[in-house]
């Protein structure tokens, strides 16, 4: 007897439907916090239809698109579960809509003067850029008006990422 599409699946049923071994499903639960099957007495797992859809998307990204686990984790963090579910279903329209929504959100996070809202975790200093006091030439010019608003936002985002990397490296040293 076939189950309803809305019915919960045991791990064996889910593994069969997804064409994955059960141990892979258990492993992915440890790597993707978004996969949360209902666990009943004795630790028996029941996968919701949403869990199955999410796992289909993760499977597609890992096996067919060639992403690493960390890459899929980043996609989930940046775009949310619905993005991965839409990818797994092959719903191109939903993927594009989510991507456009994220881009619009990123554009809204840029203030009117073109500076990203928020502050970096590490305050940049002239030594970091290779400038001594009073210098305005070199890697970073004092006048950034020649850059477009989008390019300045992208450069500032890259700078924040680099500064965070530098902070992490300094902690390790």
TrEMBL record:
Pfam families: MerR_1 (PF13411). Residues 10-78 form the HTH merR-type domain. One of its GO terms (molecular function) is DNA binding. CDD domains: HTH_MlrA-like_sg2. It comes from the Bacteria. InterPro entries: DNA-bd_dom_put_sf, MerR-type_HTH_dom. GO terms for biological process: regulation of DNA-templated transcription. Coiled coil: none annotated. This is MerR family transcriptional regulator. It comes from Nitratireductor pacificus pht-3B. The lineage of its organism: Bacteria, Pseudomonadati, Pseudomonadota, Alphaproteobacteria, Hyphomicrobiales.
């Amino acid at each position: 007897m076939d189950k309803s599409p809305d019915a919960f699946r045991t791990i064996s049923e889910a593994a069969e439907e997804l064409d994955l071994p059960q141990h892979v499903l258990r492993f992915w639960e440890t790597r993707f916090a978004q996969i949360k099957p209902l666990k009943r007495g004795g630790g028996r797992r029941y996968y919701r239809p949403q869990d199955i859809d999410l796992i289909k998307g993760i499977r597609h990204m890992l096996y067919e698109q060639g992403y690493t686990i960390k890459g899929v984790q980043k996609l989930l963090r940046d775009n949310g579960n619905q993005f991965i579910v839409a990818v797994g279903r092959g719903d191109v329209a939903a993927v594009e809509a989510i991507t456009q929504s994220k881009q619009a959100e990123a554009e809204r996070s840029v203030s009117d003067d073109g500076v990203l809202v928020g502050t970096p975790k590490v305050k940049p200093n002239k030594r970091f850029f290779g400038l001594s006091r009073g210098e305005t030439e070199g890697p970073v010019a004092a006048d950034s008006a020649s850059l477009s608003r989008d390019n300045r936002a992208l450069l500032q985002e890259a700078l924040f990422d680099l500064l965070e990397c530098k902070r992490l490296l300094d902690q390790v040293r």
